[in-house]
Write a structure and sequence with these properties.
Elements (H helix, E strand, L loop, with lengths): L5 E4 L5 H7 L7 E3 L10 H10 L4 E4 L13 H14 L4 E4 L2 E5 L5 E8 L5 H18 L3 E4 L14 H12 L2 E5 H11 L3 H7 L5 E6 L3 E4 L11 E4 L8 H14 L4 E3 L8 H18 L8
Helix pairs in contact: 4-5, 8-9
Length: 294
């Protein structure tokens, strides 16, 4: 399945209206399998109905590719069956760790996406886990660059070098989150275009765009009063600088699917589709426009 165009991250807040209207301005839907695996009732049935009408891409939250504990084989087996049912052509998850082993060996979810040290050793460990996940799932994997707020230990390579090394060793795709790269560039003071030039954009299989919120860092660390801190909340409209970055990146990635993410302060579907239209306008300035009706 060749998925392209612009799509929405499916959220239950607008599920019913999406089913009622089936807007043609949505080219595909992305879903997190963790919200459906092991669940019965309305939501899985609604997803099955939508999967007959929209291409579905799967994006995971809990694989913990940067962790050290063994991958959860039961989860991978369930995930494989789920991916087969919705016919996602690949599966993506975050380049982070999100679980840790407690005393006694049991692993617990941390409910956060935590960064890993950028090192050759770390890249090899993550790549090995990505390869094992690909074998278990039966579809290609893609890894997503995350937003982070502290460096975990001393880095021996830059983030784009690290992402490139993981993708090379695992022979996997890149889920490029342009908002995450922009947020990190603002918080840590680096050139995001230089980051993009060093990243393996030729391996991009999908792009995420989202909004963020700006805070006074003094709200968290009193000694940092007056310093700007950007949090990747997915709780605001995609700002112009992120859309401009998307427009600069797309010529290098080609017409891969671009997803609008919204996880907080989710507006009504018409407002969300209006924002999706702004993303589509960028897409169509770069590639040949395709006629759509909302």
């Amino acid at each position: 399945m060749n998925v392209t165009g612009v799509g929405l991250g499916l959220r239950w807040e607008f599920l019913d209206r999406l089913i009622e209207e089936l807007p043609k301005s949505v080219d595909f839907l992305e879903i997190s399998p963790e919200n459906y695996i092991g669940r019965g009732g309305y939501h899985p049935a609604a997803l099955e109905w939508l999967a007959e009408r929209y291409p579905i891409l799967t994006h995971g939250l809990t694989m913990s590719l940067g962790g050290v504990e063994p991958l959860d084989e039961a989860y991978l087996a369930e995930l494989r069956g789920f991916i087969e049912r919705v016919k996602s052509p690949f599966h993506s998850d975050h380049l982070c760790f999100g679980s840790a082993a407690r005393d006694g060996g049991a692993s617990v979810l941390l409910h956060d996406l935590l960064p890993i040290r950028f090192s050759e050793e770390g890249a090899r460990r993550v790549a090995d886990r990505v390869k094992r996940a690909q074998d278990a799932l039966g579809v290609p994997m893609a890894v997503e660059n995350i937003s982070y707020y502290v460096h975990p230990g001393r880095a021996s390579m830059s983030e784009p070098e690290f992402v490139s090394r993981v993708c090379e060793l695992a022979d996997c795709g890149l889920m490029l989150d342009v908002n995450n790269a922009y947020v990190n560039s603002q918080n840590f003071g680096f050139d995001v275009d230089e980051w993009m030039r060093a990243a393996p954009l030729e391996r991009t299989v999908q792009i995420h765009v989202a909004g963020h919120d700006v805070f006074d860092e003094g709200d968290f660390v009193p000694s940092a009063k007056g310093k700007k801190l950007i949090l990747d909340t997915h709780g605001a409209d995609v700002p112009d600088p992120v859309l401009a970055l998307l427009e600069r990146v797309l010529p290098r990635t080609g017409p891969v699917p671009v997803l609008l993410e919204r996880d907080q302060a989710i507006p009504e579907l018409p407002a969300l589709l209006e924002e999706l239209g702004r993303v589509r306008a960028v897409y169509e300035r770069v590639f040949a426009p395709v006629a759509r009706s909302a």
